What does this fold into?
Amino acid sequence: MNGVRRKLPVSRPMVPLWDLAVVLDALSQHPFEPLEMVGLKFLSLKKALLLALTTAKRVSDLQALSTRPACLQFAPGASKVCLRPNPAFIPKVVESAYKCPTVELRAFHPPPYGSAEESRLNTLCPVRALRVMWTGLPASGEPISCLCLGPHPTRESHCPGRDCPTGLWRL
It folds into this structure.
């Protein structure tokens, strides 16, 4: 059987099964917008996907991001955000020169908008999603203090005392 596999290797399609343009277009419309009126579930999904796409980090690296004042810092005017992992986080692959890397995200098409297209593109800004998540949802009145993306459903929550709304493993 191994000889057959070598002569006729299994070919896998190199094209993803989903279209990024379709996904990003959906994120800029209802039920993901207007962001200030969106429920926690859709806000968490949008934040998780935008962070995953813009940082290209592993799930464990994203789950290690912390909201401690030393780890989550917004620039004035929400023009950028600096994210750092929890200092206790140990990465999957430890490099000899590992030192809590900082992730810096700049705002994507911030106001003032020159056109309707720039306004639409701003709906895809991960800094904006983090800012709304950090300041809390007006509908619930409860501030969000956890930047985690949620545990795997078979594992215990890594956020003591909180039920994290959305797991990145679902994306």
